[in-house]
Amino acid sequence: MANEVKLEAYYFQIKDQVSVQRKKKKESPYYHLGDIEGKDFLEMFKIFLANHTKSHGRDKTLKKSFSILSASSKKDINSESRYISGVIESGEYGVGSNIKNVTGEVVHPKNSSESIDMPFYFLLFAPKGKRKAILLIQRTGVHGAYKVFERNLKKFIITRYKGLDLESTTLLSNEVAKKILGGGIAKKVVLTRHVEKGDIFNSLGDGYSNDKLTEEGAEMQLVLTSRGKGMLNLKSNLDKFLDGKGISSFGVEDLGFTGTKFTTSVKVLHNGKYRTLDLSDSLKIKPYYDLESEKLKKDKDNHPIFSSINEISLELLEDIIEEENY
User: Fold this and answer.
1) Considering all CA atoms of the chain, what is the largest pairwise distance in Å, rounded to the nearest integer?
2) Under 8 Å between Cβ of 7 and 136
3) Segment 139-168 mean pLDDT
4) 108: which residues sit within 8 A by CB, 6+ positions away?
5) Neighbours of 319 (CB within 10 A)
6) Alpha-carbon span 85 to 278, nearest angstrom
7) Cα 289 to Cα 44: distance, rounded to the nearest angstrom
8) From CA 61, how far away is CA 68, in angstroms rounded?
9) Neighbouring-strand partners of residue 289
10) Which long-range contacts (CB under 8 A, 24 or more apart) does 50-55 make?
11) Closest CA to 187 of 60, 246, 272, 91
């Protein structure tokens, strides 16, 4: 589905940039979230949200706009942990284009200084006694806001709190990934590779040519999805992948999916929920949590209703806490 809604998951940690004194004391360079030199990460995060609620910012490197539409804090997961959930608004700028309706009529000629902003849900979970905060953030189809969100938060931490830095990592541990993939069963597998101008696919027929491509090239995908309630048996491929052979375990030589010149993702069913795992980096498996199968409710513009995605995310957070032994 082109506009399929998923959640990405990451760990955030606050690090001492200098850490000389902490090294002398043989302490971890990462602070407990409730005591960062007397400060609470959740309170620091609230200041960050307030700053971006008041202004519509932009990231000149990513060519993306960024602002906070809404945010609210809660303390009801359990007695010793807290979370904040809200909505980010972000979109790309830097290139002009025509905005058309579905009949092809131009309704607005968009210039390079304009962005088409979309809402993205987020949830930050930051227990006082832990060194890692958990971030869940929405992705809709190919559109996401994680990178611009992370870059702005990191800049805020470094600028406002001297000597501190923000470090982020993919949430899924290798142990949990192996447990999820070990059964070898999947609902869907997607191979994606870049196609350069002049790259010819003989297997697509003698009449095929891509000499009309721009220098940016194109993207070729090979998608295999099981029908109905059936599942794909990928045990041989996944066993090779987990043994260290990487994405070459899924290669299709005749179509140019060879070596590491392509990306791979698999959609698996785990604990009754579908998850999409990006296997492109065998050392850092990236999870996406599919929400379309969770009876997600949407508004008239096909965006998730906040109360619906928030409820699903809190249930998912509890699963993650248990799985990661957090």
Assistant:
1) 70
2) yes
3) 92
4) 98, 99
5) 14
6) 25
7) 27
8) 19
9) 7, 275
10) 51/156, 52/152
11) 272
Give the mean model confidence (pLDDT) for residues 170-197: 79
| The predicted structure's pLDDT at residue 153 | 95
Q: How many helices (H) and strands (E) does the chain have?
A: 6, 17
Helix (H) or strand (E) holding 42: helix 41-54
Residue found under tokens 């700053």:
51
Determine contact, residues 195/220, Cβ cutoff 8 Å. Answer: yes
- Comparing C-alpha atoms, which of 77, 83, 94 is closest to residue 126? 83
Helices 146-160 and 41-54 cross at an angle (nearest 10°) of 110
Q: Which residues pair with 7 in a beta bridge?
A: 138, 289
Between CA 264 and CA 251 the distance in angstroms is 9
Residues sharing a CB contact under 8 Å with residue 317, sequence separation 6 or more, in sequence order: 77, 83, 123, 125, 134, 136
Which residue is associated with the tokens 């929405």?
A: 138
Q: Is 95 helix (H, G, I), strand (E, B) or coil?
A: coil
Residue 150 β-bridge partners: none
Q: What is the pLDDT of residues 204-252, one digit of tens each?
A: 555 555 556 566 667 888 898 999 888 999 888 888 887 877 778 888 8
Residue for token digits 């295999």?
224
Structure tokens at 74: 């809660």
Whole-angstrom distance, CA of residue 8 vs CA of residue 158 = 24
Residue 319: closest CA among 250, 270, 251: 270
User: Rounded distance, CA 66 to CA 148, Å?
Assistant: 7
Helices (H), 161-234: 174-181
- In angstroms, rounded to a whole number, what is the distance separating the alpha carbons of residues 68 and 47? 12
Rounded-to-integer distance, Cα 243 and Cα 234, Å: 14
Question: What is the rounded distance in angstroms from the CA atom of residue 8 to the CA atom of residue 213?
Answer: 32
pLDDT over 70 (residue 288): yes
What distances in angstroms separate CA 80 from CA 41, 126, 182, one per listed residue?
Answer: 14, 10, 34
Span 66-122, pLDDT tens digits: 888 887 765 544 445 588 999 999 888 888 877 888 788 888 888 888 887 889 999
